[in-house]
Amino acid sequence: MTWMWELMVARNEGEIAWCEWVAGLVESGVSYLPEKVSVEGLEWERWRKQVD
After folding, report:
1. Three-state SS for 43?
2. Which residues have CB under 8 Å from 3's CB, separation 6+?
3. What is the helix (H) or strand (E) element at residue 31, kind and residue range?
4. Which of these, 7, 34, 32, 8, lies nearest to 19 by C-alpha position?
5. In the prediction, which pLDDT does 30 show?
């Protein structure tokens, strides 16, 4: 059972590190949305203007 606990802890640490990395990118101004992707005929730019 100990190895299962250690595996879970290692996975969680990896996920935390990834989340912190992504948060750093977003906070530095990197967009988390693609520039031009059609979603059911709706461009991201138009969608972003609607939600802002």
Report:
1. strand
2. none
3. none
4. 32
5. 83
Q: What is the dihedral of CA 12, 4, 7, 13, to 10 degrees?
A: 20
Residue 9, both tokens: 């802890």
Output the CA–CA distances (angstroms, integers) from residue 34 to 3, 4, 20, 29, in the order listed.
40, 37, 20, 13
Cα–Cα dist 38/29, whole Å: 23
pTM: 0.56
Residues of the chain with pLDDT under 50: none
- Output phi, psi for 38, to 5 deg: -90, 125
- Bridge partners of 38, per DSSP, are 43
Written as one letter, the residue type at 52 is D
Q: What is the pLDDT of residue 43?
A: 66
